[in-house]
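Summary of Year 1 activities. Much of the first year was spent building the evaluation harness for sequence design. The harness presents a backbone, in tokenized form, and records the residue chosen at every position. We chose the following record to illustrate the format because it has been used consistently in internal testing since the harness was completed.
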């Protein structure tokens, strides 16, 4: 799709290139993003501009709507089918073809029993693609105090050891394939379905004429145990689709269950509202739905077709590859250990205090590091900064994030199925000033870029001169709740002090107000404008709503206050930076 879009953007294309073509576009959007459905709008406009004619209005789905994308998709799809019947007369299906229609994508063959329930590849996950690999957990620790992790949210640093053949760059993204909790899988397979974990099945795709005799599959060609299937390939902890309720409704003889499942599966306003209240608002999982509707037990093949597939999660890598071992701050580690022992150790234990004690601890850590580190370890590790997702619904039900919980529980040596992707951000030349805005775990890609730049400046010797000596350091705006609770990687930011000015907003440490990164940006307006005048680039990382829009407005206000620009001219300047990829937002959620 990216290649097609690049080809369509060629300025020399004639305006009649697509004359005679009819098209329709439906966008999958999220109103939390300022550029709502930007890709769909641009594609629709470009196709029309090259001579193609839309046969249907532009559809703009909104995933944030209470009813999800279906709120806009349902009427749009009905209108699309009506419009298509006027363009090309549909073929009438024969009685035999109608009889063969079903909702099942897969066929199953039971091929035997595995020797033990744990015989599946827990120690060596099955790789589905040449780009995938298995990383091993090297370390897993909390970046927060024990009190903050318990009462508010835990954030962990997951250090992974890569295989020798894999490498990455600062700004890259790690794609992680999670696994379901073993207790949940056992309960679902054994108690809910009445089957055995060790049952080996071969899952094949049912080919159809519409698919040209071929279709993609979520499963490998080799036989799998049911434990494997529900641990690594299907997500029984995910909120199911409306189609899932349709499948369940066909396989229950319980009158009340059938009526309720059919209501959830319907496209009526009342059905959508009921589904939202029961399932989406409560984040009720597919497993929980089957526990509630215990009489609905579809054949295994149909169940596999209806359940959500296990989807990977993407995490910006929080380190650069050359950093591990190259610039380890053992003194910083010693200070972190001192803070940790003060927070969790009993009162009778003497705390680690004083410059001498910190220095002795740092030397001991350095000696131990030299003993433990293998020669190939340094270039083959990466850090992930992972916020552990836990939530309570309006009715008091407690839930957890699948992948963050999977990583939280990972022990040293555990395998993680992964792959790399290029991220939105990438290192810039050292002479290009940077303004980094990254509250919370949004600091992940920025930490990698900061480490990379520090190494660049250290090797070139440029850290001691130029604009840094004149006081025009790069800027980094961090945002956390409490200085003493969740200041992530707090002991290492002073390492970059010669060239980086770190400004931190602690939103809950003030009794009279909350302070966010946009407030700190305004407080440092003169410095911000100095960097912008010097050609600085802005990177904004974190949650997609509402922070990025508020940060944009803060930069507008800074330009108005310190450069005398009007609202319109300040906005235009920042928009032009965005167009030139000098103001980049890397956001999620």
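For this record, the design step produced the sequence shown next.
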């Amino acid at each position: 799709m990216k290649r097609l879009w690049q080809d369509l953007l060629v300025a020399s294309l004639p305006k009649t290139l697509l004359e005679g073509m009819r098209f329709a576009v439906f966008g999958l959007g999220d109103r939390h993003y300022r550029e709502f459905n930007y890709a769909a709008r641009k594609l629709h406009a470009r196709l029309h501009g090259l001579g193609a004619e839309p046969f249907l209005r532009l559809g703009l789905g909104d995933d944030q709507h209470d009813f999800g994308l279906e709120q806009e998709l349902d009427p749009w799809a009905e209108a699309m089918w009506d419009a298509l019947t006027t363009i090309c007369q549909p073929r009438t299906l024969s009685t035999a073809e109608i009889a063969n229609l079903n909702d099942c994508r897969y066929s199953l063959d039971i091929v035997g029993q595995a020797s033990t329930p744990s015989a599946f590849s827990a120690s060596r996950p099955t790789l589905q693609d040449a780009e995938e690999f298995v990383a091993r957990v090297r370390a897993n620790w909390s970046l927060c105090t024990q009190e903050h992790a318990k009462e508010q949210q835990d954030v962990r640093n997951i250090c992974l050891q890569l295989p020798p053949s894999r490498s990455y760059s600062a700004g890259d993204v790690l794609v992680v394939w999670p696994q379901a909790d073993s207790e949940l899988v056992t309960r679902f397979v054994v108690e809910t379905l009445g089957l055995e974990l060790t049952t080996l099945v071969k899952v094949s795709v049912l080919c159809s004429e519409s698919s040209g005799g071929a279709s993609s599959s979520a499963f490998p060609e080799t036989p799998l145990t049911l434990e494997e299937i529900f641990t690594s390939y299907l997500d029984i902890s995910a909120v199911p689709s409306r189609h899932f309720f349709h499948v369940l409704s066909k396989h229950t003889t319980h009158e009340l269950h059938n009526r309720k499942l059919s209501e959830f599966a319907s496209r009526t306003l009342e059905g959508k509202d009921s589904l939202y209240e029961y399932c989406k608002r409560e984040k009720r999982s597919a497993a929980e739905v089957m526990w509630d509707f215990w009489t609905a037990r579809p054949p295994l093949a149909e169940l596999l077709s209806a359940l959500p597939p296990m989807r990977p999660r993407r995490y910006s890598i929080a380190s650069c590859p050359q950093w591990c071992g190259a610039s380890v701050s053992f003194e910083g580690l010693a200070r972190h250990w001192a803070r940790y022992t003060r927070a969790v150790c009993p009162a009778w234990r003497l705390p680690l205090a004083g410059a001498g004690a910190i220095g002795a601890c740092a030397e001991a850590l350095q000696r131990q590091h030299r003993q433990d580190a293998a020669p190939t370890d340094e270039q083959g590790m990466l850090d992930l900064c992972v916020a552990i997702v836990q939530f309570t619904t309006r009715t008091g039900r407690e839930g957890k994030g699948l992948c963050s919980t999977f990583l939280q529980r990972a022990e040293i040596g555990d395998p993680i199925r992964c792959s790399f992707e290029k991220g939105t951000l990438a290192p810039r030349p050292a002479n290009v000033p940077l303004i980094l805005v990254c509250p919370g775990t949004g600091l992940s890609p920025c930490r990698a870029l900061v480490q990379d730049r520090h190494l660049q400046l250290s090797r070139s010797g440029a850290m001691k001169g130029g604009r840094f000596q004149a006081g025009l350091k790069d800027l980094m705006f961090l945002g956390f709740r409490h200085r003493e609770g969740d200041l992530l990687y707090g002991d290492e930011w002073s390492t970059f002090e010669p060239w980086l000015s770190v400004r931190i907003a602690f939103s809950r440490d003030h009794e009279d107000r909350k302070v966010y990164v946009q407030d700190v940006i305004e407080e440092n307006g003169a410095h911000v404008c100095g960097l912008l005048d010097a050609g600085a680039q802005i990177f904004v990382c974190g949650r997609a709503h509402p922070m990025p829009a508020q940060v944009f407005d803060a930069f507008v206000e800074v330009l108005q206050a310190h450069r005398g620009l009007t609202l319109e001219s300040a906005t235009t300047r920042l928009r032009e930076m965005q167009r030139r990829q000098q103001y980049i937002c890397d956001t999620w959620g």
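The chain has a mean pLDDT of 89. Quantitative recovery figures across the full test set are reported in Table 2.
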